[in-house]
Each structure stands twice: as structure tokens, then as C-alpha cells.
Write a structure and sequence with these properties.
By secondary structure, the protein is an alpha+beta fold. The chain has 1 helix and 3 strands. It is rod-shaped and about 125 Å long.
């Protein structure tokens, strides 16, 4: 009976030791990933499109009449992070004439 009790005690002790090792290994592998804070860098300017504003006429040096279209080109700043996220900054507009009308 004593031998049987010693064997059972040894088995219980071995099981407790194995359980302790598996719990510590499990705790090591379930670490939370580090929190990423984006550091955005300026990547360039994005063209958003043009809007027609108006037409006007003008005379060239030989007094020939021509038509010039006035457009508003829209752009915005683009910033990106190394993780792939994109952030857009301020937008701005540039007034443009399609002909060399002197305006």
C-alpha cells in the first residue's frame, strides 16, 4: 500500500510540474502586440480636379479675337505613415487661364 501511495504521489507531483510548465509557456506566447503610433510624413500633393469658372475674350498682338477659359485647379497635401495609413492635409486652389491672354 505504501508503494502504491508513493507512486500516486509521484504521478501527482509530475502532473503538477508539467502543468506549471505549460501555464508559463502559454503566458509567454500570449503577449499583446505593441501599440503603434503613426508618424505621418509629407508624401506630395494630390490633384483633385478642375472646375470651370468662366470664359473671356482677348485680342492678340494682331488684334485677332480669341477666347480663354478660366479654370480653378484643386490640390491637397498627402501624408503617409510607414504602416500604410494615409492622412490628407489642407487643400488649396490655383486659378488658371487656358490661353496666353495676359491675365
Amino acid at each position: 500500500m505504501k508503494t502504491k501511495m508513493k507512486r500516486i504521489g509521484a504521478m501527482v507531483l509530475a502532473c503538477v510540474m508539467l502543468w506549471g510548465i505549460s501555464v508559463s509557456v502559454s503566458a509567454e506566447t500570449k503577449q499583446e502586440p505593441p501599440v503603434h503610433e503613426c508618424a505621418f510624413s509629407y508624401m506630395g500633393t494630390e490633384y483633385l480636379g478642375s472646375t470651370h469658372i468662366t470664359y473671356h475674350t482677348y485680342l492678340d498682338e494682331k488684334s485677332n479675337k480669341h477666347t480663354c477659359e478660366v479654370l480653378l485647379d484643386r490640390y491637397r497635401y498627402v501624408y503617409k505613415c510607414a504602416c500604410g495609413k494615409t492622412q490628407y492635409g489642407d487643400s488649396y486652389s490655383i486659378l488658371r487661364h487656358t490661353e496666353r491672354c495676359g491675365q
